[in-house]
Amino acid sequence: MALDAKLHDIYDEVLGRNPGEAEFHQAVREVLSSLGPVVQKHPDYVDAAVIRRLCEPERQIIFRVPWIDDSGQVQINRGFRVEFNSALGPYKGGLRFHPSVYLGIVKFLGFEQIFKNSLSGMPIGGGKGGSDFNPKGRSDMEIMRFCQSFMIELHRHIGEYTDVPAGDTGVGQREIGFLFGQYKRVTNRYESGVLTGKGIHWGGSLVRTEATGYGTVFFTEEMLKANKESFDGKRVVVSGSGNVALYAIEKVKQLGGTVVACSDSSGYVVDENGVDFDLLREIKERRRGRISEYAEEKNVPFSSTGSVWDVPCEIALPCATQNEINEEQALTLIKNGCRYVAEGANMPSTPEAIERFREAGIHFAPGKAANAGGVATSALEMQQNASRDTWSFGFTEDRLGQIMRGIHQRCLETADEYGKPDDYVAGANIAGFIKVADAMLALGVV
Ligand SMILES: NC(=O)C1=CN([C@@H]2O[C@H](COP(=O)(O)OP(=O)(O)OC[C@H]3O[C@@H](n4cnc5c(N)ncnc54)[C@H](O)[C@@H]3O)[C@@H](O)[C@H]2O)C=CC1
Ligand SMILES: O=C(O)CCC(=O)C(=O)O
Fold first, then answer.
1. ipTM, interface predicted TM-score of the complex
2. Tens of pLDDT along 170-226?
3. Torsion-angle region of residue 388: left (phi > 0), alpha (psi -120 to 50) or beta?
């Protein structure tokens, strides 16, 4: 989509200052493409260089992570933490451990996080981190040694009032445990609020594990309700089978839909009777196995070629990774009758795919709105830590539901106000942006 002239200059500057960071460029362009009507109404956002400042992280930390594998060999990975924007609160965002991680991925995720966290209504800034470490196939002891080495450097930069990491791809409760243990050891502080996604007996919140997937489904339910529909009887395809995907699958079933397919990086399974959440969770969370085991145990088809998006559905929930729906796959979804797409993952649809969805009148919710339930529940975990309290599952899930309904309403109201009715991308970008931009104006040039 074409950019307004002033925004185009800003985008060119971002390209020049951040060469080779394609995912970061994509995330910036997607936000800028919504801001034309905003800068026309509020030229001060450009005059005070708010948008240019937003595109430059406040701090970027890159560090060496040496560790010893089970055979006694020294391994070296690279660690990152990008502290992007703290106008609304301490930097907040997950850590990703995956071989594809480099600065451009961490910056795209950190940039998205600014607007998502703003939209969530919680007092949290945006940041993200991770490493090119590949946890796949590593023993628990190797994971622990890696996490301990990672935290030896990271602990200098984080804190309850500074920067609060959490999990993301490749980082779940096991890794958060090793990271928290090392933080506690090197600082000699039981500072519960320094990390979220902790276990329930050591400062964690009920519902945080389920929150991103549940939140995505709650958001989708609101989209359906806005069109006088429900999940009841709908065919749903979910990509991935990790943290976000698993709990999206569970909640879709609870709301009356049928998840007919899901995937992992080795392929996808189709189960016309509805994916069996308990079995999938057993394979993925406990055995750390491959999705083909599901197909073998249920005697259903597994495919290692093609795409999960070839499976016909009315609702698509991409919950695996960035750019996993390209233009061709978007066209296949449309041809097969898909009418709703809500992003559980961060930036899973390419710009061309989003354009095809828009042309076809698909109800499309971007990740920064639809998957904000995870980070919002992390903020609820921080609230519980600060008040030395523990909330019940029901109470916390109700709070998550209210937050997702609030985000949905803010997206639609803002889209309407700026002349883009029903455009969740415009609504999310503009509503997320304005709150941070106003805070930055109020805080002066810092
Ligand atoms: N965990 C959280 O609370 C949040 C996660 N997200 C985003 O959701 C997405 C998934 O994160 P998690 O579930 O936490 O990670 P995870 O590590 O638990 O699961 C990732 C899943 O995606 C699959 N996958 C990865 N690449 C794939 C590919 N090319 N094709 C098919 N499947 C692929 C993996 O096999 C795995 O099943 C990421 O984009 C992450 O940034 C967004 C908000 C919060
Ligand atoms: O819970 C958090 O702090 C971070 C979640 C996250 O990384 C995300 O929203 O993408």
1. 0.98
2. 999 999 999 999 999 999 999 999 999 999 999 999 999 999 999 999 999 999 999
3. left
Q: Active-site residue 128, yes or no?
A: yes
Q: State the distance from the centre of ligand 1 to the C-alpha of 241, rounded, in angstroms.
A: 8
Q: Is the dihedral of CA 122, 126, 130, 136 positive or negative?
A: positive
* Tally of residues, the chain: 446
Q: What is the average pLDDT value for the chain, to the nearest integer?
A: 97
Atom 7 in ligand 2: residue holding the nearest Cα: 94
Q: Answer whether 340's CB lies under 8 Å from 363's CB.
A: yes
Q: Choose one of 238, 321, 371, 404 to mutate for the ligand 1 pocket test, by most ligand atoms within 8 angstroms of C-beta.
A: 321
- Which is catalytic among the residues 128, 184, 284, 435? 128
Domains and CATH numbers, the chain: 59-191 (3.40.50.10860), 211-361 (3.40.50.720)
Residues near ligand 1 with C-beta < 6 Å?
A: 167-170, 212, 239-245, 263-265, 319-321, 324, 344-346, 371, 374
d(CA 199, CA 190): 14
Model confidence over 395-436: pLDDT tens digits? Answer: 999 999 999 999 999 999 999 999 999 999 999 999 999 999
pLDDT of 13 > 90? The answer is yes
pTM, whole model, 2 decimals?
0.98
